[in-house]
Amino acid sequence: MTHSILAGSLSREFGGRSQASVFHRFQQMQRDDRKRREREDKAKAEAEAEDNGSDLLDMAAVMVSSAEIGAFRLEIDRYDAATFEALYANETALALIMQQKEELLMQAYVLPDGRHVFKSEDGVRVFDEHGIELGADDIDPELIGNERPSWETYERVFNEELFLRQERQELLDYQAQLDEARERLDAGDMTHEEFDALRDELTTAMPDAVRAQILELANEQEPAPDASAPASNLFDISDDMRPTATASAMPAPGVPA
Questions:
Q1: Is 0.90 topped by the overall pTM?
Q2: pLDDT 10s per residue in the chain (257 long)?
């Protein structure tokens, strides 16, 4: 009887100790797991901080600095000033050419339909004021006296006008391109790749008339006069009549229609 009571007491004591041991082991496992998670979270946070710092450094290397943007703005302003001077010279030259053209038209032979015509120097061909060649059904070349301006004389002025008008349009287009470049800089967030591309674009698209106004760029141009040169090189304008593109605060004159 006594033996049975003792055995039951030992069994209960052993069972209580086993449960306490299991409970302590469970608590230790929780503590170890919590520490493990804390170590992992800390390592992850340090890695993310390192990555963010690296990203910031990479971003700083990619983005254009305010100093670079400021210097480029000054460069654009310089191009803009050169474009204005080129436009002023172009419009002055165009006004002169238009005056000479009007004088030739006043001396030309006029058809019944109002067209002004010019006979070639060999006396065979006839052209109207727009450069269209007329046939024998339109007019007999013999009707045009030799005292009237020849087609070759008028053609030089005609081609010069076309050249100057084309040049003027190129200058206006480039002026608009400079304005767009300013807007792009104002937008900000420009990478070095975009920045370099924009600078190259403005330099490449720069008309010769603008380039001639910038000393270091003008020196890069090599004159190559030949038979295919633009009419402005073929048409003889005396030095006192040829406009010079000097800096001026005067507004550019309007272009004759």
A1: no
A2: 555 554 555 455 555 555 666 556 666 677 766 766 776 677 676 656 555 544 444 444 467 788 888 899 999 999 999 999 999 999 999 999 999 999 999 999 999 999 999 999 999 999 999 999 999 889 999 999 999 999 999 999 999 999 999 999 999 999 999 999 999 888 877 888 999 999 999 999 999 999 999 987 877 665 544 544 444 443 444 444 344 333 333 344 344 43
Could you tell me the residue ranges of all domains in the chain?
1-62, 66-108+149-234
Please give the single-letter amino acid code of residue 254: G
Distance CA 86, CA 76 (A): 15
Cβ atoms < 10 Å from Cβ of 92: 18
What does each C-alpha distance from 3 to 8, 9, 14 come to in angstroms?
Answer: 9, 10, 16
Instruction: Report the distance separating Cα 83 and Cα 89, nearest Å.
Output: 10
The one-letter amino acid at 180? E
- In this structure, what is the dihedral angle of CA atoms 225, 226, 228, 234, given to the nearest 10 degrees? 60
**Do the beta carbons of residue 117 and residue 109 sit within 8 Å?**
yes
